[in-house]
């Protein structure tokens, strides 16, 4: 019996040969392609890190630590550069340590002696380097006159400032002296000089707003007594003279402060009682009310300024409030003769200034025409 390829028992190789004729073989690359690199350069390392280690001896100016940022903070007798480089300021021995007041920071410092450890106890004085040789003659004068280039260039300006300050102090002392002599003639020449210096000291603190009048007066008394105590320690006066000087000045200060005072502008005047001050303020306010709702001329403005600036009558805050009320930038519309009526479509009068104002009743913006005398800043 002959079995054909179309029969049920056909050979198995016939279909496999047909599938092989359909599939095509594809070859892929087996070699890896590398990319090209053009930037083959790199910057050199900055050599950061410690340059001196624990207990190493350093001289002033030697670098202890190079870093980026304050990973190590500067401690005793070291300086910090603009690039956070830590360098020695004194000759000594390097110490890396922790500060109990800043437990998260690491510090490096320079101990002046080998047996000293850092940090120093908090309430003990810092160890300083002494024992320098005493300079004499030309060497001492050269060291005293030595200054940096920046200090040398600043000398003309510093001298000019010092001269202006001296001239101001002398002029105020002369002013206070004449005021004291004109008001109270029972003070001696020495007491007048002490009183003038006392007023100058108080006026400077009031002008800078560093102390109140009472606190400045107490500080002036303390300074005088302290200077007297230092003079006594130097042997310039005895203990009995110190006690007498202290008691006499305290008595003088109490008497002087009851007669004279000074305001924040530096003007000295006789001290007023509470009743007299209230009466003076009421009188001044009554005079200022005469200038309400009227056109103000240059003469009126000067008169208002003089009333407000009376020495010892109004405080600094009261003066500012009174100036805003009686010397406004623009006079209120209630002042007669400062508002110009302009008909709709009419020509604007000469000298009239249009001002846009908000009317809260109608919630609208209206144009009001004012005369030039309503603007005090224009005069």
TrEMBL record:
Region entry Disordered, spans: 32-51
GO MF: structural constituent of ribosome
Compartments reported by the entry: Mitochondrion
Family classification: Belongs to the bacterial ribosomal protein bL27 family.
Keywords, comma-separated and alphabetical: Mitochondrion, Ribonucleoprotein, Ribosomal protein, Transit peptide
Alphabetized NCBIfam families for the sequence: L27 (TIGR00062)
Presence of the UniProt keyword Ribosomal protein in the record: yes
Residue span(s) of domain Large ribosomal subunit protein bL27m C-terminal: 138-377
Family matches, as InterPro entries: Ribosomal_bL27, Ribosomal_bL27_CS, Ribosomal_bL27m_C
Annotated Gene Ontology cellular component terms: mitochondrial large ribosomal subunit
PROSITE patterns (alphabetical): RIBOSOMAL_L27
Alphabetized PANTHER family for the sequence: LARGE RIBOSOMAL SUBUNIT PROTEIN BL27M (PTHR15893:SF0), RIBOSOMAL PROTEIN L27 (PTHR15893)
GO biological process, one term: translation
Protein's name according to its UniProt entry: Large ribosomal subunit protein bL27m
Source organism (scientific name): Australozyma saopauloensis
Keyword presence, Mitochondrion: yes
């Amino acid at each position: 019996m002959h079995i054909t390829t179309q029969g049920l028992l056909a050979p198995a190789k016939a279909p496999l040969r047909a599938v092989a004729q359909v599939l095509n073989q594809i070859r892929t690359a087996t070699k890896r392609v590398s990319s090209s690199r053009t930037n083959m350069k790199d910057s050199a390392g900055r050599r950061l890190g410690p340059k001196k280690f624990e207990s190493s001896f350093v001289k002033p100016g030697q670098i202890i630590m190079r870093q980026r940022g304050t990973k190590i903070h500067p401690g005793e007798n070291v300086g910090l550069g603009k690039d956070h480089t830590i360098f020695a300021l004194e000759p000594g021995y390097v110490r890396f340590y922790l500060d109990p007041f800043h437990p998260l920071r690491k510090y490096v410092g320079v101990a002046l002696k080998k047996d000293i450890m850092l940090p120093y106890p908090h309430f003990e004085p810092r160890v300083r380097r002494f024992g320098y040789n005493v300079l004499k003659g030309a060497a001492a004068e050269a060291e005293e006159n030595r200054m940096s280039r920046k200090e040398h260039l600043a000398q003309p300006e510093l001298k000019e400032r010092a001269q202006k300050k001296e001239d101001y102090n002398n002029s105020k002392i002369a002013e206070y002296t004449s005021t004291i002599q004109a008001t109270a003639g029972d003070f001696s020449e020495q007491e007048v000089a002490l009183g003038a210096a006392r007023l100058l000291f108080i006026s400077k603190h009031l002008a800078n707003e560093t102390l109140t009048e009472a606190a400045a007066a107490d500080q002036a008394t303390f300074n005088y007594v302290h200077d007297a105590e230092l003079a006594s320690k130097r042997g310039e006066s005895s203990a009995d003279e110190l006690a007498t000087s202290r008691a006499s000045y305290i008595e003088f200060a109490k008497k002087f402060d009851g007669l004279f005072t000074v305001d924040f502008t530096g003007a000295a005047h006789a001290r007023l009682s509470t009743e007299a001050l209230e009466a003076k303020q009421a009188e001044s306010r009554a005079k200022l009310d005469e200038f309400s709702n009227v056109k103000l001329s240059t003469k009126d403005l000067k008169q208002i300024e003089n009333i407000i600036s009376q020495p010892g009558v109004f405080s600094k805050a009261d003066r500012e409030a009174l100036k805003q009320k009686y010397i406004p930038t623009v006079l209120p519309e209630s002042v007669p003769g400062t508002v110009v009526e302009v008909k709709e479509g009419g020509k604007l009068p000469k000298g009239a200034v249009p001002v846009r104002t908000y009317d809260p009743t109608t919630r609208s913006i209206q144009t009001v025409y004012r005369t030039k005398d309503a603007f005090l800043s224009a005069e």
